[in-house]
Write a structure and sequence with these properties.
heterodimer, A: 113 residues, 6-stranded mixed β-sheet, 0% helix, 55% strand, B: 112 residues, mainly beta, 4-stranded antiparallel β-sheet
Amino acid sequence: QEKVQQSPESLIVPEGAMSSLNCTFSNSASQSIWWYQQHPGKGPEALISIFSNGNKKEGRLTVYLNRASLHVSLHIRDSQPSDSAVYLCAVSPISSNTNKVVFGTGTRLQVLP
Amino acid sequence: EAAVTQSPRSKVAVTGGKVTLSCHQTNNHDYMYWYRQDTGHGLRLIHYSYVADSTEKGDIPDGYKASRPSQENFSLILELASLSQTAVYFCASSPGQGAEQFFGPGTRLTVL
């Protein structure tokens, strides 16, 4: 079964700084990797996904995927207090007949004004 | 308008009682999921479904049943609620394998 680990558990950064979140997974053949943002009392919302090795940029977000090292990272440039939330890494294993996504336990990001 | 809705939003149940959590989606998605979220465990998959009238076990199905009577509706049933099932439960829908999941607002279940 796919294992997904996130680090750090908690991250505090000042407003305007870069926030860097990490995620490791156990199966290099995993199909897709998503990052979700979850504010208190709300359901998770998808932020960005990546399928191929390399990086992908969307606005202030950049995600890097290295399948050889089973590692994906999310970087938030110019972090804002509104970015304060829990960030979840989600990995979809390769399978012909399931769509079981495995989530990490999350990184709690706090951006101080 | 919210595409995935859950009811109730909050529920207090007694140990040994039956609890039904409901989920409705207007996304026209084939895939639906039930997760529970506990501090320190993240989101864990309980049951999921690809098509109406069919459900599949997730990673932690023990003590839970699921029902998918239509594409839009997916229920989670706790026949004999236990203290350990106190958690926040999320329903989600998705258009396909590896695709984005759209989550509901969650149901906070407390079993006393």
